[in-house]
Write a structure and sequence with these properties.
Blueprint: H1 19-34, H2 37-70, H3 75-79, H4 81-128, H5 131-136, H6 139-181, H7 184-231, H8 233-238, H9 242-295, H10 300-317, H11 320-341, E1 363-373, E2 376-386, E3 391-395, H12 402-409, E4 417-422, E5 425-426, H13 432-437, E6 439-442, H14 453-458, H15 466-475, H16 479-483, H17 502-516, E7 520-524, H18 532-546, E8 550-555, E9 566-571, E10 574-579, H19 581-587, H20 590-599, H21 610-616
Parallel strand pairs: 3-8, 3-9, 6-7, 7-8
Antiparallel strand pairs: 1-2, 1-4, 4-5, 9-10
């Protein structure tokens, strides 16, 4: 049989991998399989038993033919010897199927268990990587890498256990029998044909792999562009760029199609070459056996035996092309997935890190320097303290580094220099899970899960009761809106919450943070999407939530922070002023000029811009 997968073979990774990396992928996979070592060893024993039975079938068939030829007129021979051999022949046939199926039953849990463990580990590892990694990755391409990697584990194990190892065992047994029982010429032809077949297959498949790599690259790029365009559906529609996005998508599809056509044509070359080699080898062996029968050096049973051996030996080789290609692709895909798994964690817990112990909940920044990119510091020696139960607000223009404070507190990044402490404990020295359990955040840009409103609110505390969910929804001034929906709290919010307005999403985020009930709360422009009436209503709830709780409020609108115990004016990565609202106004400095500028604006208190700061500075 030949490789007939002309149109749909598994893709390979877009980036070529050095041979050593594929062996590294095998070494990485081995521990997951060896976890089921008893099943692996049992399956291998079943494999050997199946192949011994399979090789025994032609041997029994030879004796049947020879006995019938030698004693054609002896009724006892027909009744005794061939009947016994026929029973043995049937038993061996059944044994082949029996041991093969037992092997699959025993080994199925190994493959699926390994896939499950690796997929879960990759999923968990992705959440342990830094925010910087996730901002740089492309979701469509990475999801394809993981999908291919997990699928390729099944392919690799299946082809190895069910095709390669059985074929190698059978090759060894057949060639060994040919060497022992017959002229060396038989073994030489069989072995020579195998070497030529494998060499031809490897050379042509290497050529085809380049074509497959190009196909895969264009497939990944097309998928990335499609996902990116669909995620930005509103932007595409707003600018009327549907045709533009379709053209970009089709550009990659056209390149993929060109490579796919070349790959299909090269497959015909591979199949034809393999057929010629097999046909030539089988013809030579049968001719040599026929000559032996004519010369009297071989019996008809020997002719049948040689022919049966060749059929058994070369039948699985017909799939060598697709098997070799699939193995290379599987190893490349697995290596790519393990590359994600072995991605270094930019932010990691120190060894034996203790959990964070929160008492008062004080937060202190000590001479913190931070840059997203080398040479462009966002924070330049920032120092301030929020005492336990105190509310501190940070104001300033966009790009001043305000939202960076919350990212550093959550340890999405680590400072380039300086320390951040909670209750005197350096957050770099405690477990990240305990740190984030102590923090609550209402972000400026709220992204919701594609589920119900109730699910998204309850995400703040999985397992919370409906009564608790409704209680925080009332506090966030969204309960009445939810009750007006036909499905109430079971209303779907759509992908990324697109079915809700910006203000509604923000109120869901506030409710979610209130449900978590952490000792330290961070509001990062938590009311930026709300109108003035709802903002004033929620401000009272924010003040109530902040009572007896350490709170950091990051804001553009100065009217939202007038009640803070301390206000920090952040600009150019440094604190320019600090004090209460009244103190800063009395000082007549930068904050006072910012306040006056916003008062001159409209009723909605528009956010302060970089140009505005330049005007008041």
């Amino acid at each position: 049989m030949r490789d007939h997968s002309r149109a749909a073979a598994a893709p390979v990774d877009a980036v070529p991998s050095p041979p050593g990396s594929r062996w590294a992928a095998l070494r990485s996979l081995a521990p997951y399989l060896w976890h089921y070592r008893v099943r692996v060893i049992t399956a291998l024993l079943m494999l050997v038993a199946a192949k011994l039975a399979n090789v025994g079938v032609p041997l029994v068939l030879k004796h049947i033919v020879d006995d019938l030829q030698i004693k054609p007129g002896d009724p006892r021979a027909v009744l005794v010897v061939p009947v016994a051999l026929l029973l043995a022949y049937g038993a061996l046939r059944v044994s082949v199927s029996l041991f093969t199926e037992l092997r699959e039953v025993v080994f199925s849990r190994v493959t699926q268990g390994a896939v499950r463990r690796i997929a879960l580990q990759v999923f968990e590892h992705l959440f342990s990587l830094s925010l910087r990694y996730h901002l740089q990755r492309q979701t469509g391409g990475m999801s394809r890498d993981i999908e291919r990697g997990t699928r390729s584990i099944s392919s690799l194990v299946s082809y190895t256990l069910y095709s390669i190892l059985p074929t190698l065992v059978e090759m060894g047994l057949v060639i060994g029998i040919l060497v022992v029982r017959y002229d060396w010429w038989f073994a030489a032809v069989a072995l020579g044909a195998l070497v030529l077949y494998i060499s031809f297959t490897v050379v042509v498949t290497e050529w085809r792999t380049g074509l497959r790599r190009t196909m895969n690259e264009q497939d990944s790029r097309a998928n990335q562009r499609a996902v990116d365009a669909l995620l930005n559906y509103e932007t595409v529609k707003i600018f009327g760029n549907e045709a533009y996005e379709a053209t970009r998508y089709d550009d990659n599809l056209r390149r993929w199609m060109h490579a796919a056509v070349l790959s299909q044509n090269s497959l015909s070359v591979l199949n034809l070459g393999q057929s010629v080699i097999i046909a030539a080898a089988v013809t030579l062996l049968v001719w040599r056996a026929t000559v032996g029968v004519v010369d009297g050096t071989m019996s008809l049973g020997d002719l049948v035996l040689v022919n049966a051996f060749m059929i058994q030996l070369y039948a699985p080789l017909g799939f060598l092309g697709v098997i070799y290609r699939e193995l290379r692709q599987a190893l490349t895909d697995i290596e790519r997935m393990f590359t994600i798994l072995h991605q270094d964690r930019e932010v990691a817990d120190v060894e034996q890190a203790p959990p964070l112990r929160v008492s008062a909940g004080s937060v202190r920044f000590e001479d913190v320097h931070f840059a997203y990119h080398p040479g462009h510091d966002v924070l330049k020696g920032l120092s301030f303290e929020i005492e336990g139960g105190q509310t501190v607000a940070v104001v300033g223009p966009s790009g001043a580094g305000k939202s960076t404070l919350s990212r550093l507190l959550f340890r999405f990044y680590d400072p380039r220099a300086g320390r951040i402490l909670i209750d005197g404990q350096d957050i770099a020295g405690v477990t990240q899970s305990s740190l984030r359990a102590a923090l609550g955040l209402v972000p400026q840009d709220t992204v919701l899960f594609n589920d119900t409103i109730a699910y998204n609110i309850a995400y703040g505390r999985p397992g919370a009761s409906r009564e608790q969910v409704e209680q925080v929804a009332r506090a966030a001034q969204i309960h009445d809106f939810i009750q007006r929906q036909p499905l109430g709290y079971e209303t779907p919010v759509g992908e990324r919450g697109l079915k809700l307005s910006g203000g509604e999403k923000q109120r869901v985020a506030i409710a979610r943070a209130l449900l978590k009930d952490p000792p330290v709360l961070i509001f990062d422009e938590a009311t930026s999407q709300l109108d003035s009436a709802n903002e004033r209503a929620i401000q009272a709830e924010i003040r109530e939530a902040a009572r007896d709780r350490t709170t950091l409020i990051i804001a553009h609108r100065l009217s939202t922070v007038v009640d803070a115990d301390q206000i920090l004016v952040l600009a150019d990565g440094r604190i320019q002023e600090r004090g209460s609202h009244a103190q800063l106004l009395a000082a007549g400095g930068l904050y006072a000029r910012m306040w006056e500028l916003q008062r001159q604006g409209d009723e909605s208190d528009p956010p302060l811009r970089d140009g505005d700061l330049a005007r008041v500075a």
